[in-house]
Amino acid sequence: MKTILLSRPLTNVHVEEIARQFAMPDLTLPFWGSRKKMPMHRIVRLEGEGNYTLFHFADGSQLMVSLTLKKMESRLSPKVFARPHKKNIINLLYLEALHPDHQQLSVSLVNGDRIEVSRRKASRFIKQVRGFQQELLVLDAKPTTPMLVAA
Description:
The protein is of the alpha+beta class. It has 3 helices and 11 strands. The strands form 3 sheets. Strands 6-5-4-8-7 form a 5-stranded antiparallel beta sheet. A 4-stranded antiparallel beta sheet has the order 1-9-10-11, with no helix packed on it. A two-stranded antiparallel ribbon has the order 2-3. It has one domain: CATH 2.40.50.1020. Helices cover 23% and strands 36% of the residues. GO terms for molecular function: DNA binding; phosphorelay response regulator activity. It comes from Spirosoma telluris. This is LytTR family transcriptional regulator. InterPro entries: LytR-like (IPR046947), LytTR_DNA-bd_dom (IPR007492).
C-alpha cells in the first residue's frame, strides 16, 4: 500500500488564516440545556453515533451533542468539510495523508485518527480533496495583508 502525503501539516496560525479567508463562522451547538459557540475551524472530525454526534477538536477534546450527523453536515462549510463515510465528516484542514489500497481507501488526520473512505464515495471524496488543495494553492498565491507605505 502506497501512502500519499498531501502537504506539510498546517500550523494553528495558518488554519486560523484559512478559516478567515473561507469565512468559516462559529458553530452554535446545544450543550446541557444551553448553547455553546465553537469555532468551526477547530473541529478535526465529526463521528456519528446514532442520534448523537461526537466532535473531535484540534486540542484533543471531544464533545457529544444530541444532533444527527446529517443535521450537522448541513451546518458545516462544504468547502472545508467532507464526508468520506456515512459515519464520519472530516475537516480537510487536518487531512494528513491518503492511503490507497486495492480494496479500501483510507485517510489519516493530523491527530492520528485513521478514517476509511467508502467505496461509493471515494471518487467524489478525492475530487473534493483535489479541489480543496487547489483552493489552498490559490490562497497561498494571494498576498496577505497589503503593506502600508508611509508618504
